Amino acid sequence: MVIEVNKDIDRYQESVIMGLSAKQLIFSAASLISGAGLILLLYRYIGLTASAYIAIPVVAPIALGGFYSYHGMSFYEVMGRKLRFAFTNKALVYVSTECETVIQKYMQELMEKEKSRAGFLKKHKKGPIEESVKAKDEKSQGDFEEKKRKQ
Q1: Threshold 0.90, pTM exceeds
Q2: Of 58, 65, 112, 144, which sits most exposed with the smallest number of CB within 10 A?
Q3: What is the rounded distance in angstroms from the CA atom of residue 52 to the CA atom of residue 144?
């Protein structure tokens, strides 16, 4: 026994008439009625072409309300979010914390740590390690000064 199931079962919709769901049927009928009504009302005054051009912007959002879906949201939800994001979002402002005074404070902290480490090593151990700490301290200070001059 073989039972065929759609691969995309989440998008399954039950049709009411002519393959349309109830929502699609209601919105398509509403757009058809509003479009026909507008054209019939305006036809006498501005002609068929102009009345059709006026009816299209009225009918399109109504029809999209029934057929359009994006990530499970209806047309009205998507457009509401777009409008909200366009008009109510605040601008994101970046404030740099990488100014020269912050860098100098950071370098001073590093130097103090290195000096305290060198003092600790000096008390407990004498030898080539003390010289390497001193050389590393001078090198980092020299690198900082060189980068500062380049900017």
Answers
A1: no
A2: 112
A3: 71
Distance, in Å, from the CA atom of 137 to the CA atom of 111, rounded to the nearest integer, reads 7
Please report, for residues 15, 29, 119, the alpha-carbon distance to residue 19 in angstroms, rounded to integers and kept in the order given.
Answer: 5, 14, 84
In three-state secondary structure terms, 6 is coil
**According to DSSP H, which parts of 68-127 are helical?**
75-88, 100-124
Residues 6+ apart with CB under 8 A from 23: 66
Domain range summary for the chain, segments of one domain joined by +: 15-74, 100-150
What is the per-residue pLDDT for 106? 84
- Alpha-carbon distance of 54 to 64, in angstroms, equals 17
Kindly give the parts of the chain with pLDDT less than 70: 6, 8-16, 95, 97, 120-139, 141-142, 144, 147, 151
Q: How far is CA 60 from the centre of its chain?
A: 27
Give the Cβ contact number of residue 115 at 10 Å.
Answer: 13
